[in-house]
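Field reference: "sequence" (input) and "structure" (output). Example, NAD(P)-dependent oxidoreductase:
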Amino acid sequence: MTFTVTAASGHLGRLAVQALLDQGVPANQIVATARTPEKLSDLAAQGVQVREADYSKPETLASAFAGAEKLLLISGSEVGQRVPQHTNAVKAAVEAGVKLIAYTSAPYADTTDLPVAPEHKATEEIIRASGVPFVFLRNGWYFENYTENLASALQYGALLGSAGDGRISAATRADFAAAAAAVLTGDGHENAVYELGGDEPFTMAELAAEVTRQSGTEVAYRDLPADEYEKALVAAGVPDVYANVLAACDVEVRKGALFIGSGDLSRLIGRPTTPLADAVATAVKN
């Protein structure tokens, strides 16, 4: 059995490879791919097969996916380019004879108004049409979306957003990676759609309160109109297009778009998801 993980130099991909190793998969049965394979030298040193795979260069994908039986297709990061890129990857997977494609999608991808969802919905449709058995891992927000950016919140005493009292079922990247590994190594997941989120949803105000408690620095949540939040993001150096997407996402969060009550994530990983307090503690220590 050969397991291939794309985008393995990214945060989630690297954790997924590690999760497979932790589950006892022999390193030589794991293929880790990246646009820049040199970034995976540490995995190669452990015996993992390392190959080049660039979604925008179909010629790299045939050799990258050769021999793969189960493929973890981690969605590309280039908004606006994902559909053609993922189309290339799915075509290559079909030609390689892949028997299962696990794809990292977005929450409620086929029904949500989250602005990041249309490309994921289109990719799901492409995978369904390919005829290859699939698993859609509809990952909710990562805790790290918030905890990796706490320095400015601690400096200014405020977390900004436009999410209102919307509840967010976040989990750590490691939790989502563990779920991906469980799906790849387990049985009975063919053609399943999993809505993945943390067990304990929180509001932005609750996040701010937890940061205050653990850091000893007073941090408040400042809820802004979407246009003001977008302007604040741009002023902080976020590119215009991403600032617009982030603000629009918060509008949907306010409506409940990131509340995920399925319990799928904890069932797949066989344990409770990482609590908010633990995620914040890790961030504050670092």
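The domain at 141-171+198-259+271-286 is CATH 3.90.25.10 (UDP-galactose 4-epimerase; domain 1).
The chain has two domains: 3-139, 141-171+198-259+271-286.
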